[in-house]
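Please, structure for the following, as tokens.
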Amino acid sequence: MRQRLRAFFSRGGDLTFALVLVVAFFLVFMVILILSFPKGVGIDTRREPEAQRSAPPPPQAGTRPESWESTVARLTWVQRNVKAKPADSIVWTPASAGLSLGEQDAVQTFADSGASIAFDRNQTISLGENALIVIRRFEREPALGAQRASVVLLRGAVEGSVAGSSRGASTVEVVAGHAATSISSAGGGTTRFRVAAGTDEASVVAVTRGRAEVKVGNRSIAVGSGQSLTIRSNGSVSGPSSLAPPPVLETPADGATVFSGALPANIGFVWKPVGEDASYRIEIARNASFKEPLLDRPVAEASFGVPDLPAGSYAWRVRSIRKGAEGRPSEIRTFDVATDRDPPALHVQFPVGRQRAGVLSLHGETDPGARVFVGKSSCAVAADGTFEAQVALSRGVQIVVVQAVDVLGNVAYASRMIAAR
């Protein structure tokens, strides 16, 4: 009995020791996990120390503040696929117009998408497709009427405007690559700008109206109206240089109507080139505000064809691009696409009675500009729409078919059964 008790306690001590080792290893493993994977802070690594942040902690994205004072910015317009991420989250969620944004919140757009962000009525920026920004901060000085906003552009491009007032200056800072661009306006004027990040491994700042100050390292460079500045990935600077002038639009003419028929309308957009070193960006929208463009594309040549535009009213404009910098847009032209499914007129003078085998001359008339086919062969059509076709008749009875096809693809037919001896 004594030996059995001694063996039991011996085994119990071994089990206790084993349990202690397991718990110890588990605790060590948890400590290693905590040290290796700290709590994330989102994609922005440019967060300022808490002591330097003058604004109170912002609300998370998606909250509804009672006034502008309780938020940094707001999404005012969203097109297609746009997502937002609060500062203290790693999850991106679909964004909609009216969404409130706080400091360190992020917004990104995807292909054929866009968004507009307002800090207040005088400071707005718009994101093109495939863009990513982080809101840094927004500061107010109510006594002076001054406002300062700052964003980090990580990908894509932003366009914006800053309007001043008699009370004080408004400023927007865009940090992209090696440069921090400060755009301000005072005294009621408005500054319009565009900043592109990572274009051919360089950032490009363009000012179409007003003035901007670009800081690159210890340098401060002024960019005036109609100028651009290129900041390369190694920190070197090119410019300021003049922006390419806006193109002169040619077709479609302003107020023109383009018809589509049995075949979809392939509308050709043409403008005068501004130089061999220029490319272009064409925008087509349902209205002249261009808030929701149907097409926004870079174009290498001074023309572009768009098929399958449904019936409706449209507006279009073009910008010139030189060395990655976009200039002012051209004039805005409007046009209509209308549906025309009516076949062209077709009148053929078929012979009466039995004919002799051989060559038969057919005469007829159709709409000017239409094409005429007799069987599988085409025939010439005069400017006034008249035509003459030669038909080979063999002995017996045969069917002669004539087709007229207008420029919209609408077809008219005429046929006759002719007997030849």
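Residues 2-36 form the longest helix (35 residues). The first strand starts at residue 73 and ends at 79.
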